[in-house]
Amino acid sequence: MAAMGQYRNIVILTGAGVSAESGIDTFRAGTDGQPSLWEQHDVEDVATPEGFARDPELVQRFYDMRRAAIQTKLPNPAHDALARLDAAWGGDLLIVTQNVDDLHERAGARRVLHMHGEHLKAWCTACDVRSPWRGSLADYPPCPACQARSLRPDVVWFGEMPYEMNRIYAALRRADLFVSIGTSGAVYPAAGFVRDARELGAHTLELNLERSQGSHLFHESRLGPASQTVPSWVDEVLAGA
Ligand code: OAD
Fold first, then answer.
1. Range of the domain at 31
2. Active site residue 116
3. 83 in a known ligand binding site
4. Which of this chain's residues are annotated to bind NAD(+) (predicted)?
C-alpha cells in the first residue's frame, strides 16, 4: 500500500494540457505555434445547442473528426503516472477530467469522471440512453437502444450542465489535496473547484505549462510540461513527501 504522507483524499482536475503531448489540440493556448481548437473553429457554431440546432451536419462532422482523431493518439507519461497513482493510492482519489478523450482510461486509470462527457459515447435525445460509439454520427445512424435517429455527441456544450456535479462536490468536501493539471482555468464550474477545495481546507497545487488564469488561487504552482511535472509529483506523493 502506498505511503500516505500528510494526505489521504485526493481530487485531481485535468484539462487539455494533460493530453497536449499526446497530440490533441488544446482549446485556447496553442502549443508549438499551432493554432488552438477555438482559434480554428467558432465555439458558437460547434459547441453550443444553438449551433447544433442551426447546422447539425456541421457539428456532427466536427465531432466525427475529433472522435476519429483521438483513436489514433496514445496516452503520454502524465496519463501513465496518474494511472499509477490511482492503482497505488489507498485513500479516496477522483480524477475529474474536462477532457472528452479516453487517454486516462487507456493508461489504466479507473477512478475517472468525465464532467464534460466523452467522444466515444453517443447520447440519444429520444430515449436518453448513452451508447459506446466509435464511428460516424453524421449519417444519422439509429440508436442501439430505441432505433430513433436522434444521436448526438455525448459532449457537454456551452450552456449545458456538466455531468455529476454532486459527486464532484462530495469528493471536494472530503479532499485534503486538490491538484489541477493542464487547464487554463477559463471555464466554470471547473475553474471554481480550487476556491471550493481551498475553502474546505485542502492543500491546492497547480501543474501547468504556464501560470493559468486562477494561478494565484493555488497554494503552490509548478510550471512545465505535464509529461515531466506529473510523474515527478506522483513519485513524491507516493513516497509520502
Ligand atoms: P485550455 O486549452 O483552455 O487550457 C489548456 C491549458 O493547458 C493551458 O493553460 C496551457 O498552458 C496548458 N498546457 C498546454 N500544454 C501543456 C503541457 N504539455 N503540459 C501542461 N500544461 C499544458 O483547456 P481546458 O482548460 O481543458 O469545454 O479547457 C476547459 C474547457 O474549455 C474544455 O473542457 C472545453 C473548452 O471549451 C467544453 O467543451 C465544454
1. 27-72+118-155
2. yes
3. no
4. 98-101, 182-184, 208-210, 226
Whether residues 123 and 196 fall in one domain? no
pLDDT tens profile 97-133: 999 999 999 999 999 999 999 999 999 999 999 999 9
pLDDT digits (tens, 9 = 90+) for 11-70: 999 999 999 999 998 988 655 666 777 777 888 999 999 999 999 999 999 999 999 999
62 & 173 share domain: no
Question: CA 148 to CA 171: how far, in whole Å?
Answer: 36
> Cβ(103) to ligand 1 under 6 A?
no
Report residue 232 CA to chain centroid gap: 21
209 annotated as a binding-site residue = yes
Q: How many residues does the chain have?
A: 241
Distance of CA 183 from the midpoint of ligand 1 (Å) = 4
Q: Is 33 left (phi over 0), alpha (psi -120 to 50) or beta?
A: left
Is 184 a known ligand-binding residue? Answer: yes
How far does residue 25's CA lie from ligand 1's centre (Å)?
Answer: 9
